[in-house]
Write a structure and sequence with these properties.
alpha+beta; 8-stranded mixed sheet; globular; binds flavin-adenine dinucleotide
């Protein structure tokens, strides 16, 4: 059962029938396309900000090209190509990175000169261009026709589409959806998919499912006719002017992505809204229009025939919301398309149909997964303020480490003011304000963004050295902390963990949770606090997903409860060779190697307080994570900082944790490992307890992979030979001149003295150690290809001696 007859609902119906599903019903409250779809500009531009979006856009383009021949319904596709313009060196750099990444997914492009832009678009002003890129296969479509073609294809495959049928309620039983209520009565359904566009948040609420999105005004204008324009003029994407420009029936269309947007419909979308538009706010938009028109100066002399404003839904991080609800079985969502719904629609339909049919997405789509959303985001003021910024973000610079500026300060650790006073520059993750780096006294803790070394590079180097040589203090209270308790807790956790977590009380285990195909759904630690009591610690942004994963694996008859304890504990992470001496100086408990070994957890007294100390490290050094009851956090922090002076303690931020873990090749879930990567490919086979009683979810798939011989891809650590360039994410990796993979994460390694990267090396005949180490590698950066040394053991402290001292 699909709710919503826009491009997304129709595409999912189409793709489900392609999988052989016949019992597919789509309900549309008014008419197909009457929400947002009908008035889209229909650009099919394939180079997107992220790998997932680019792959979905590429699939969509390929699908729409063949849809008319298949269904007999015209789609209005015009293969006009597109040109992306960069007005600054930074944007040129970003685009050069992007086209290299997109080429790995078959997106064809070529850097062209301003003169070539001029010859392709004679009316364009090219005097201010720093670079331009031509995408010959990009296209545009008529969104209504594409949607009708998908609907026709779906009907031909057996789906039934009902218009003028409003869904007014969601029926559930025992935590699963069982049907919907409509103005025509109740309809039973095994699976319900919420594709209700800007209504998806309120449809989600009918089911108690959080879909944090908000509609905003979204504009394009149409000029009076201009003789020279014709349908084959490429789409001009002009981020410097926050605009795109294309031909429209002998006129010019200019679409706008202004940097400060105006949310719409906060009090609810009007009930009768159908093929609707919004009266344009000329005063607000005029400066943006004028700026955009400068790209085609003729527009300044030509009248505007229409300034169109329609609502589109946007999400807090400018990524769509799709997938399975965390808290209601068989309820799916696909909404919040941030003005990319047409160009992603085909790919979204493909992914969702497989997800519904097979219980798992056919590719890693974490960046758009509904489960990255948090319950607190269902807040009108938060959405209103963030969406004001989100609309324009796609056309702005996507510098590494760029932070949102709106809707900040949602969550603060109790130590916030202390670390702020110590110079913290905060970044946001899952609403938490977290110290990313510390400014020197007298300097403002503010980012200066760019593609080269940013203003905090030296601070990161100093913090990094402090941890390697002395001791660093990380404020990590944002980490998700779940209690899993009850008589059956150990069985529940053991069933989903690769490692054996049935360990002695006081042991901490590093493990993955796998899906049925052996992909990594979570990468975390489990500490046994008592026979029937476990602490699961996971990164802040994964909390909803991990909590849902555990809950959804608790059998109905099991005695096991999961409680989110994140707010109850602060977390202070003390790392570095001097950490033992520092902690020993403030505690009467024994931190000696014999008394407190690696992977052990126990309560310790620090000052007047008692906290849980877990000896672990994501930095590759001797160190302890301290889980401090919130009321104790300030005094414990004060005691450690006061004593720390004698040990050379330095405050350290998340960028430093990242540079430290890169040198140790510690994996980061969602970057280096995810639902498509198995522990065997990721070099994490050591966590797998192959013979533990009962096995675990995904173990059969892993066994099959193991008996299959060598993995076809393996995660490898690389060190750039040149100490200068920075590597970030998604850069192509070449082995002996052939593309073998993309960088999954990277950071400058201040101990190793160059950029360190992780990335998969693929080879159809299998990837042996000899294959990895026998190649000559290069990482492809905008300034050229740079030689990189591969390693299958951590380049820093390969034997882990520092960790275990
Ligand atoms: C000015 C403008 C230009 C754009 N240009 C582009 C572009 O060039 N390229 C691009 O990719 N995207 C573009 N977009 C964005 C694109 O239009 C949307 O992302 C896309 O149409 C979203 O599709 P949808 O199916 O999610 O939503 P919708 O088209 O809104 O469909 C949702 C449907 O659900 C129905 N519904 C809601 N509640 C219920 C209920 N309770 N019961 C039954 N039915 C219900 C609604 O009536 C509606 O028809 C543009 C948007 C705007 C506003």
């Amino acid at each position: 059962m699909i709710i919503g007859g826009g491009v997304i609902g129709c595409s999912i119906a189409y793709h489900l029938t392609k999988l052989g599903w016949r019992d597919v019903v789509l309900l549309e409250r008014k008419q197909l396309t009457s929400g947002t779809t009908w008035h889209a500009a229909g650009l099919l531009t394939t180079l997107r900000d992220t790998e997932t979006q680019t792959r979905l856009a590429k699939y969509t383009q390929d699908l729409y090209r063949r849809l008319e021949a298949e269904t007999g319904q015209a789609t209005g596709l015009i293969g006009c190509g597109s040109i992306q313009l960069a007005m600054t060196r930074d944007k040129a750099h970003e685009m050069r990175r992007g086209v290299r990444m997109a080429a790995a997914f078959g997106v064809e492009s070529r850097e062209i000169t301003p003169a070539e832009v001029q010859s392709l678009w004679p009316l364009a002003d090219v005097s201010d261009l720093a670079a331009a890129f031509h995408f010959p296969n990009d296209a545009r479509v008529n969104p209504t026709d594409v949607t009708q073609a998908l609907a026709k294809g779906a009907r031909a495959g057996g789906a039934r589409l009902y218009e003028h049928t409003n869904v007014t309620g969601i029926v559930t039983k025992d935590g699963a959806v069982t049907g919907v209520t409509t103005d025509a009565g109740v309809i039973r359904a095994e699976i319900v998919v919420n594709c209700a566009g800007m209504w998806a948040r309120q449809v989600g609420r009918l089911a108690g499912v959080n879909v944090p999105l908000q509609a905003a005004e979204h504009y394009y204008l149409i000029s009076e006719p201009i003789p020279e324009v014709h349908p084959l003029l490429p789409i001009l994407r002009d981020p410097g002017n926050a605009a795109y420009i294309r031909e429209e029936a002998g006129k010019i269309m200019v679409g706008l992505f202004e940097s400060v947007a105006k949310p719409w419909g906060q009090a609810g979308i009007p009930e009768d809204f159908s093929f609707g538009d919004i009266p344009p706010d000329w005063d607000r938009m005029y400066p943006h229009i004028e700026k955009a028109m400068r790209r085609v100066p003729r527009l300044l002399e030509t009248g505007i025939k229409l300034l169109f404003c329609g609502p589109e839904s946007f999400t807090p991080d400018h990524n769509y919301l799709m997938g399975q609800a965390p808290n209601l079985r068989n309820f799916f969502v696909a909404a919040g398309f941030n003005s990319l719904g047409i160009l992603s629609g085909g790919g979204v339909g493909f992914v969702m149909a497989h997800w519904i049919a097979e219980g798992k997405a056919p590719m890693d789509v974490w960046s758009v997964n509904l489960r990255r959303a948090h319950a607190w985001q269902d807040n009108d003021r938060y959405l209103n303020d963030r969406i004001t910024e989100a609309l324009g973000i796609g056309y702005q610079d996507h510098w590494p480490f760029r932070q949102w500026t709106s809707a900040r300060d949602v969550k603060k650790s109790v130590l916030h003011d202390r670390v702020a006073a110590a110079g913290a520059c905060f970044g946001e993750s899952a609403g938490w304000e977290r110290p990313n780096w510390y400014a020197n006294p007298g300097h403002a803790p503010e980012y200066t963004y760019g593609w080269g070394r940013q203003n905090w590079f030296a601070n990161n180097a100093a913090e990094h050295r402090a941890v390697r040589e002395r001791v660093g203090l990380f404020e990590q209270s944002s980490f998700g902390k779940l209690y899993v308790q009850g008589r059956d807790a150990v069985h529940v956790l053991n069933r989903i963990s690769t490692a054996d977590v049935d360990v002695a009380v006081g042991r901490c285990v590093y493990t993955q949770f796998l899906n049925t195909t052996g992909g990594i759904e979570a990468d975390l630690t489990v500490t046994r606090l008592a026979a029937d009591h476990f602490l699961v610690v996971t990164a802040a942004f994964t909390l909803t997903h991990v909590e849902a994963w555990i809950r959804n694996h608790i059998p109905a008859e099991a005695f096991c409860v999961v409680t989110d304890m994140t707010g109850a504990y602060a977390m202070l992470n003390v790392q570095g060779p001097a950490s033992r001496a520092l902690l020993q100086s403030v505690s009467e408990d024994d931190f000696s190697p014999a008394a407190f070994g690696y992977g052990r957890a126990r309560k310790v007294r620090i000052g007047y307080q008692t906290v849980l100390a877990v000896r672990l490290s994501y930095a590759g050094e001797l160190g302890w994570e301290l889980y401090v009851p919130t009321a104790f956090a300030l005094p414990v922090y004060d005691v450690i900082v006061a004593a720390g002076a004698a040990h050379g303690l330095s405050h350290c931020g998340y960028h430093t944790l990242n540079s430290l873990r890169m040198e140790k090749a510690y994996r980061d879930w969602s970057h280096d490992v995810g639902p498509d990567d198995s522990p065997l490919e990721a070099g994490l086979g050591f966590t797998v307890a192959w013979d533990k009683p009962g096995g675990c979810v995904g173990l059969d798939a892993l066994r099959a992979q193991r008996s299959d011989g060598l993995p076809r891809r393996r995660l490898v650590q690389f060190l750039l030979e040149d100490p200068e360039p920075l590597v970030h994410h998604n850069e192509p990796i070449y082995r002996d001149g052939a593309l073998v993979g993309l960088v999954t994460s990277a950071m400058y390694g201040h101990t190793l003295g160059a950029s360190v990267a992780l990335g998969y090396v693929s080879h159809s005949d299998g990837v042996s150690d000899d294959y990895v180490l026998g190649g000559r590698y290069e990482v492809d950066l905008p300034d050229g290809r740079f030689a990189a040394r591969p390693s299958l053991v951590p380049l820093y402290d390969p034997l882990g001696l520092k960790l275990r001292q």
